[in-house]
Amino acid sequence: MTLRGERKKSARSFQPGKQQGPSEYALARTVLRFVITLRCGGVLAAIIAAVVDDGTDVSRTWQVVVLAGLTVWAACFALIATHRGLSLTLVVGDAAVVSVALLAQSRCVPALAVLDETTWAMMLASTAIYVAQLALPAATGLPLAGGVIIAYVIGVCEPTSHLRVLFVQATVVSAMMWLLRRGGRRADAIVADRDFERRRALAAAARRADERHQRALLHDSVLSVLTMVASSAIRTDSPALRRSARQALHTLEEFAIPAVDPLTADLWERLAALISRLSPELLVELLREGTARADVPEPVAEALAGAVGEALRNVERHAGARRVSVRVRYQDRSVAVEILDDGVGFDPAGVPLTRRGIRKSIVERVKVVGGDVDIRSRSQAGTRIVLWWPGG
Length: 392
Known about the structure:
Elements: H1 3-12, H2 22-52, H3 60-84, H4 88-103, H5 105-108, H6 111-115, H7 120-135, H8 138-155, H9 163-231, H10 239-256, E1 264-266, H11 267-276, E2 284-290, E3 295-297, H12 298-319, E4 324-331, E5 334-341, H13 356-367, E6 372-377, E7 383-389
Parallel strand pairs: 2-4
Antiparallel strand pairs: 1-3, 4-5, 5-7, 6-7
């Protein structure tokens, strides 16, 4: 898939009902916590209000039944919402349960409290309206709010002017959530565009770094072999010439692999393919920690695999190692690759600037895609190289 295709996909991801972006996800998580608190807190407040009431003109039996049912529902609501989120079925069920409780107001709420507009039933109706508007879009939330208000009107024992407050609550909260969701989608679209441009810049920078690396490898391997053969500087049956020719052939085979440009690449698969092309004289153990796949952006996979390849070539040429391990750690979208050998080691500070292998083909290659490199080695103590990319 091309980067242009990625951009179109990212724009579709933030439509209502589709995959949530970071802003929408954060809003949804906040709404979930608030709605659960609102439902449980509303029922608890209703119970307290009913207990402190003197019980005049009400049936305590009806109060116990209604409030016990609301308590059970609040517990079920919190449990389901925590594990499955605020689905349409759950919110409709909440409005239905509260509406049934509101229909029993004449037996549970004193008429004087209704006239004073201080009933726990009014508060309960408000919480149901808030839940519907916070959890659902206006096209669904407003009709549910209307159903709750109708249930309140039918169940109330005396007419009241407080109905205006319920209508205002439904309208204001619905409009507020519409603005918040709209703003979240716009913010996510901006972030998606920014990430697209960042990945495109990373891809371009990685390609430029790889072109420089390829030119250096061609100079150091293929052209040097051709120069030795053309100048007769070394006998054609020399073992050293055969080794150099084999390394040059590996370099050409690596360049012959067709370039691909998917959104992400599995770094583990990339490293396994790289190691399979190395000389059989070098035994490399590939290990991994974390998930079965190590998916990173294609430029990052290209840069890390190229740096690992250069490190292994250095081990093959200079380290005299008996054992080499490559360990991939992938967690929370960040990745670390450790190359460890038991060779002769070297002094990293003593590497001359004319040697491009470490400075250009490893360190610069990884840093250009936002990663970092740690190289530790001592004479006769082996070498440990860690390539790290922080994710994003």
